[in-house]
Amino acid sequence: MEEKASVKVTSSKEVRRRERHRYNRREALAGYLFISPWIIGFLVFMLGAMAYSLVISFSRYSLATNVAKPAGTANYQLLFQDPKVAASLANTLFYAVMAVPLEICVALSLALLLNRVVHGAGFFRTVYYLPKMTPSVATAAVFLLLLNGNTGAINQALAFFGISGPQWLIDPAWVKPSIVLMTLWGVSGTMVIFLAALKSVPRELYEVASLDGAGPVRKFFSITVPMISGAIFFNVIVLTIAALQVFDQAYLLFWRDQTSASPEASLFYGIYLFQQAFREFNFGFASAMAWVLFVLILLISLVQVRIGNRFVYYESEKR
Amino acid sequence: MATTDTNQAGGGPLPASVTPTTDPGPAAASRRKVHPPRSMAARIGLGGVLTIISAAFLYPLAWLVAASLKPRGEVFDNALIPRTFSPQNYVEVWNQLPLVNWVINSFLIAVIAATLVTFSSAMVAFGFAYFRFPGRNFLFGLVLATMMLPGAVTMVPQYLIWKNLGVLGTWIPLFGMNLFGSAFYIFLQRQFFLGLPKELFEAARIDGASYFGLFRRIAMPLSIPSLVVIFIFEFQASWNNLQSALIYLNAGSVEGFTAPLGIAYAMTKYSPTNGGQGDYQYVMVATLLITLPMLLLFAFGQRHFIDGVATEGRKG
């Protein structure tokens, strides 16, 4: 294994050395010119913006005078003392821990079902994909009424089965499940990624396993899961990053007019950051919040990559 | 932070719809086979389950259509066929809300945003695909890494940049970023360019074409299928974008809102807790009218959307 790796490295080094000799100055210049829009955008709106944001997070920024006065770690101290930051972070993590595994399970189950269909798979896939095309405001506007605790369709359906539904949008315990429900309605993007991964699993593996007497459960855990582990890994990372930044649904259902029926339960990190930045114009505080979120997302992603590297199977390893 | 292997990304698979070669080859054909349930009963059971799930996915949309046709008192009766048809909602909504302005604003912004990002991303992608220059793989890895950057981190400084440029209150902050290309589209378009036959470019070089001529006269005309994909992806993203509108347009007049911001405004306007009359039927009409263009877009570009999303999963 190690020998192979070292051979690979030297060969790619050789290739690179050879390439360096072949760089044509005019060609290289033209290449840089073509990618220059991205370089400018990256330097100004990403790297520059992040540096700017870091400076502001250590400053007291006045919107009126457009001056950032150095304030040391004041914003970060305030942030760690602010109970709303702690509450919004707890809400966000709670939501992510509930939403991501559910999204993965539902999307994977749907993909497995669709993967077995011979006729009409395209039809079902189209139907399942429609919610993904629905703008988030439209989803929120409809679910605002569907989730109404007294007259909403969801509670009426539950009542049909003799279940007395909760006050989804008011009861603090049900605020986050409401958003999870809306997210699950649009789970088809994740499903499509799983479906593509399932289609690329060589069928022979299942045939061999069948000959060895493996049942469907065994085949799922010993073939399907390892073979699509790359897609699972990708989806977990992307969905986690999205969940930690949850905004649209929470804003539309609870914070449109700055007030919420259950402010403790529905204040998410993204909402509080947005309020601090663009309603209170506390840019220093909001930037500090943004950096805390950035570091948090980075740490969570790194842990996920660490764990992922242990079990993810990449097709390219075979080559 | 993203686990992007630049060497691997170069050989990554393409979505079927944007692959220049149409023949998938025998290997792909044998892979595509599924193993269907054996017995008839199992097949019917599977179909039944899928149909029930379809109903769950379709119900909110069907509910929306029904509610948009109901008079005020019946919106909450949850009947999928209105007891009293109230098509006048569709006439009255234009008096109730500046829906025309919202749709025109959103449409123009989406067209500009999508046009800009399509051209800029294609240009950058051509740079990465055709030319060899020092640092190319590193820079392309950086492009892919930016896809993982959370938007919340750059939200405030980008606002301040636009403020310092003096363009707050205009539409520029809503699509200005698109001048500089967008990571996923650059990735997608680069893959497409790499699939074009090299001989075409060599022949054109011999005929004296400039580098920009290669891009404009050969690469771009041959890439229309994938350029269309980028255009409709960005059109959708822009059409649905609530947060930017909240940041940059919320302080302005209601007529200047985009469609998503307008719907958010309407949801509050008619809410009884804000002194509204609970005329949710108008919100539902407006909601349906801004959803329909997306469903139409999907009807035309269905394969592009699904293949594009699947590609997103493979690059990781």
Fold and architecture overview:
Chain A has about 325 residues and is mainly α. Chain A has 2 domains: about 55 residues, no CATH class; about 240 residues, MetI-like fold, CATH 1.10.3720.10. In chain A, about 75% of the residues lie in helices and about 5% in strands. Chain A is built from 16 helices and 2 strands. Chain A has a two-stranded antiparallel ribbon with strand order 1-2. In chain A, α2 packs across α16 and α9 packs antiparallel against α12. Chain A is globular and about 75 Å long. Chain B has 2 domains: about 70 residues, no CATH class; about 220 residues, MetI-like fold. Chain B is globular and about 75 Å long. The N terminus of chain B is likely disordered. At the A-B interface, α1, α2, α4, α5 and α6 of A face α2, α3, α5, α6 and α7 of B.
Summarize the structure.
The complex is a heterodimer of chains A (319) and B (316). Chain A has 16 helices and two strands. With 319 residues, chain A is an all-alpha fold.
Task: Summarize the helices and strands and which ones pair or pack.
The complex is a heterodimer of chains A (319) and B (316).
Chain A lengths: L1 H21 L2 H33 L1 E4 L4 E4 L3 H8 L1 H33 L5 H13 L2 H11 L6 H8 L11 H14 L2 H12 L3 H9 L4 H12 L1 H16 L3 H7 L8 H4 L2 H10 L4 H29 L8
Antiparallel strand pairs in A: 1-2
Helix pairs in contact in A: 2-16, 3-16, 4-8, 4-9, 4-12, 4-15, 6-13, 9-12, 12-16, 15-16
Chain B lengths: L5 H5 L14 H8 L7 H29 L20 H8 L2 H32 L5 H10 L5 H14 L7 H4 L7 H12 L3 H9 L4 H12 L1 H17 L2 H6 L10 H11 L10 H35 L2
Helix pairs in contact in B: 3-15, 4-15, 5-9, 5-12, 5-14, 10-11, 12-15, 14-15
Features:
heterodimer, A: 319 residues, mainly alpha, 2 domains, two-stranded antiparallel ribbon, 16 helices, 2 strands, disordered N terminus, B: 316 residues, MetI-like fold
Portion in beta strands of chain A: under 5%
Count of domains of chain B:
2
Low-confidence stretches of chain B: 1-32
What are the segments of chain A in which pLDDT stays under 50 over at least 5 consecutive residues?
1-9
**Overall pLDDT level of chain B:** 85
The end-to-end distance of chain B, rounded to whole angstroms, is 12 Å
Q: For the CA atoms, what is the radius of gyration of chain B?
A: 24 Å
Succession of helices and strands of chain A: HHEEHHHHHHHHHHHHHH
- Judging from the principal axes of the Cα atoms, what is the shape of chain B? globular
Counting DSSP H or I runs of 4 or more residues, the number of helices of chain B is: 15
Q: Structural class of the helices, strands and pairings of chain B?
A: mainly alpha
Helicity level of chain A, as a percent range? over 70%
CATH topology of the largest domain in chain A: MetI-like fold
Largest sheet: number of strands, sense, barrel closure of chain A: 2 strands, antiparallel
Write down how many β-strands of chain B occur, each being a DSSP E stretch of 2 or more residues.
0
CATH class of the largest domain in chain B: Mainly Alpha
| Oligomeric description of these chains | heterodimer
**What is the number of helical segments of chain A per DSSP (H or I, 4+ residues)?**
16
